[in-house]
Design goal:
The complex is a heterodimer of chains A (358) and B (424). By secondary structure, chain A is mostly helical. Helix content of chain A is 72%, strand content 2%. In chain B, the strands form four sheets. A seven-stranded mixed sheet of chain B has the order 6-5-7-8-9-12-13, sandwiched between helices. In chain B, helix 3 packs parallel to helix 4 and helix 12 crosses helix 13. Classes of the chains: A mainly alpha (358), B alpha/beta (424).
Chain lengths: 358, 424
């Protein structure tokens, strides 16, 4: 009734190939964007931004990055935490070396540096696949964390080995450091998240995205029809690492402000982002958002319900959280292997026919 | 969808928080994860002391106290979330019990005007109150600990030409003493050997193999959580003489030595407060807290080293709150008043005796310039057959000639990085 293509005519090719061809879908997208940009900054508080929105937006970028590599190109990676660390440390070095350059460009450059590092670690993917590639990226994870702990140049020889984000401004408004306003950091991250999503969406439905998917579905067949596996796999690694690097830079500079590599960018971070795309849905941009929202909001909701409303001891709630998240991952793998994105797709199909399914 | 959940979260928060009319002491505890063995007793001690004040004295200055517990799991992201979710409830002082979270919170608490007390951990140079206006680390810090260990070894004999190994948690916490020990090794002519252990420290075979090969005369350990017990077990496995093995105060609790059994006999650890339950305050805790069924956690930690430390932290916080009430003549103090109270805190022997803790810690004064206290360090030793820690030295002064320049240097670099105008 609401959601259908009837009466929605395309008269030009660009109209036909736009991201949201159905009118209702398109307007919903504009409304969500308008609410995010025009309404949310006014209701943002320190608590909301630091507990929910910043982690959600930043993890969404990381999940989009990993989804390009794993969901679209089929290359399993356990090195996400390490690549986020590259983004964070690159951003730190750039921020302290060139204090006059706008932080916006530092974040983009940090993504670029991570893309180079990611491509280097992607080279083994030309020879090995599946579990073996997962182990190779695991090596990248441990190597990078070790590197940032060992070589003190990366943390400017500070005694504690921590990196601290100095204060930086965009248009005269502080976005890093302790004196930031909630809405400023929110909008700063929102710009990157929306940009990443639009970029990723258009990359994945263009020719390069088709190459990635061909490699994912059957690499030998893809090679026979003329897809260059070197180009496809390395571009997937580069683009994926770029997004992951941007998210690492934001994670350090805007969200946490101080980072210790072993603790923040350890192997658990790699698994967390992997769980996000598994729960959200492999090979779906919406799935990256859904998965990130799910794993960021769920612990907060469980904590509020358990500790603040029910008054249970904090340790019981923390243990329950592990049980529930673990249970949900198993449940999703059994009941809906394509994740939240597939649930959304099914709901949309149902809506198209509703209220006359036959 | 995501916005809806956010709105629900806010609504739930509003429903959950009652009307404020008490003194809120948030406890960013960790009762889960690889560091829970240290987090649980500390959190229990912290909570029990405030329960005792409520039950026995009706709070502080007639206002009831409320401990707001939030589970961090020793994780910085959860620590930030805990800070943001509790700071709106009128939290008076934060004690995160984690050096990583402390680094996170130093700029945030300063911006929000809430004091933070990092007792024996955190950023050592916060002792310089001219730069770190809202951060306190009295009565002792990591660098006092390093110097205290070396002073103790010097009191046992000449250390020139000896080899001393530092086994440390490879994090901001473990790296803290390196600079101090390097300076001290130059001054006293001993050789320093650095052995890093990565988080969480469950696997230390190669590190102890290295120690076995190089045979250092003494080992100093800066460990925490599961790392401690593994290190002591490994030291026992290579038959390293326990009396030459010294832990910082975070590596010297019952949880760390008990798994190694008799092999841990003679292990030493630094401390800045008394050990055991032989103080009058524990009778009150038994009467008002335990017998009333109000003990925090499982109630089985009373009198352990880390429980005592939590108790000590709570006692210092309560005394600072009392001082703040006296200064401002108001019973319901704000975080800003609490900061003034902490800065004017005076702990005397008479005060501690009155509180039922005679000789529990050193007497000291906090001032605007010095947020670090006197840095008096004692040494304890584990007796495996009796199952007790005992104090084997006096609380004695550390080498401030070495430490003070380091504090000045590090705090000056923090001030210049963050454009802070130093001054009182």
């Amino acid at each position: 009734m609401f959601y259908r293509e009837a009466g929605d005519f395309s008269t030009t090719y660009p109209q036909d190939s736009q991201t949201f061809p159905i009118k209702f879908d398109r307007y919903r997208y504009y409304v969500v964007l308008a609410v995010a940009v025009l309404v949310m900054p006014f209701v943002m508080t320190d608590y909301l931004v630091n507990s929910i929105f910043l982690p959600f937006l930043i993890y969404a970028i990381a999940a989009i990055g990993l989804n390009i590599l794993t969901g679209y190109c089929g290359q399993v990676s356990l090195g996400t935490g390490g690549f986020m660390a590259v983004g964070a440390y690159a951003c730190y070095k750039l921020m302290t070396a060139f204090p006059d350059v706008n932080i916006f460009f530092h974040v983009i450059l940090a993504g670029g540096i991570t893309a180079l590092v990611g491509t280097a670690f992607g080279l083994p993917s030309l020879r090995i696949k599946g579990f073996y590639l997962a182990v190779a990226t695991l090596a990248a994870q441990f190597f990078l964390v070790w590197l940032f702990n060992k070589v003190s140049w990366f943390y400017n020889y500070s005694a504690s080995g921590q990196i601290n984000a100095p204060e930086r401004t965009v248009f005269g408004i502080e976005v890093t450091g302790p004196n930031t306003e909630a809405w400023a950091t929110y909008l700063f991250c929102l710009v990157f998240t929306v940009g990443a999503a639009i970029l990723a969406r258009n990359l994945t439905r263009g020719s390069i995205g088709r190459e990635w998917m061909a490699i994912r579905d059957m690499d030998i067949a893809a090679e026979i029809i003329g897809v260059n596996p070197l180009r496809a796999k390395l571009t997937a690694f580069a683009v994926s690492s770029f997004f992951v690097g941007v998210s690492g830079a934001l994670f350090f500079a805007v969200y946490l402000g101080a980072v210790e590599v072993g603790e923040v960018f350890g192997i658990t971070k790699s698994f967390l982002v992997l769980f996000m795309i598994i729960i959200g849905g492999l090979g779906s941009i919406f799935g990256s958002f859904a998965g990130a929202a799910f794993l960021v909001v769920l612990p907060v909701v469980l904590k509020i319900v358990g500790v603040d409303l029910m008054g249970w001891p904090t340790d019981i709630v923390a243990h329950f959280q592990l049980v529930i998240v673990g249970g949900l991952i198993i449940m999703f793998l059994i009941l809906e292997p394509h994740g939240l994105a597939q649930l959304w797709r099914v709901a949309k199909e149902k809506l198209r026919l509703w209220p006359f399914p036959h | 969808m995501k916005y809806k959940l956010g709105t629900y979260a806010v609504a739930a928060m509003m429903v959950a928080s009652p009307v404020m009319a008490d003194l809120v002491f948030p406890s960013l505890s960790y009762r889960t994860g690889p560091y829970a063995a240290g987090g649980i007793p500390f959190a229990d001690g912290y909570a029990d002391y405030f329960t005792l004040l409520n039950e026995r004295d009706g709070g502080i200055g007639g206002v009831a106290t409320r401990v707001l517990e939030c589970e961090t799991g020793y994780n910085t992201e959860k620590g930030v979330e805990c800070y943001e979710s509790t700071k709106g409830e009128g939290s008076l002082v934060y004690q995160p019990l984690s050096t990583g979270i402390t680094y996170q919170l130093i700029p945030k608490t300063t911006a929000d005007g809430i004091p933070m007390h990092t007792m024996g951990y955190g950023r050592t140079s916060a002792a310089n109150g001219e730069v770190f206006s809202h951060t306190f680390n009295y009565p002792a810090n990591y660098w006092n600990g390093a110097s205290g260990a070396i002073n103790y070894l010097m009191s046992q004999g000449d250390i020139a030409g000896k080899k001393i190994a530092l086994v440390y948690h490879n994090s901001a916490y473990g790296k803290e003493p390196i600079r101090t020990l390097e300076e001290l090794s130059e001054k006293h002519g001993f050789e320093l050997m650095l052995v890093a252990v990565d988080h969480p420290g469950q696997e230390q075979k190669s590190q102890w193999l290295q120690i076995r090969r190089e045979r250092p005369d003494n080992v100093i350990m800066y460990g925490w959580g599961v790392m401690n017990q593994v290190a002591i077990q490994e030291a026992a496995n290579i038959r390293y003489p326990m009396e030459n093995f010294i832990g910082i105060w975070w590596s010297g609790s019952e949880n760390d030595v008990l798994p190694a059994g008799d092999a841990a006999n003679g292990y030493k650890a630094l401390t800045f407060h008394g050990v055991g339950s032989d103080f009058p305050v524990f009778d009150d805790i038994q009467k008002y807290v335990v017998d009333a069924g109000k003990a925090a956690g499982a109630g089985d930690q009373i009198g352990t080293v880390l429980y005592n430390r939590g108790l000590y932290a709570a006692m210092l916080a309560a005394e600072a709150a009392k001082t703040a009430q006296d200064i401002h003549g108001e019973a319901e103090i704000t975080p800003a008043m609490m900061r003034d109270g902490m800065e004017a805190l005076e702990i005397t022997e008479a005060k501690m005796t009155e509180l039922g803790l005679p000789g529990f810690g050193p007497s000291f004064n906090v001032s605007c310039e010095n947020h670090g206290g006197p840095g008096l360090i004692g040494m304890t030793q584990w007796d495996a057959s009796a199952g007790t820690w005992s104090l084997i030295s006096e609380f004695s002064a550390t080498d401030m000639d070495v430490i003070q320049p380091l504090i000045d240097e590090d705090s000056a670099s923090y001030a210049s990085e963050n454009n802070i105008e130093a001054g009182c």
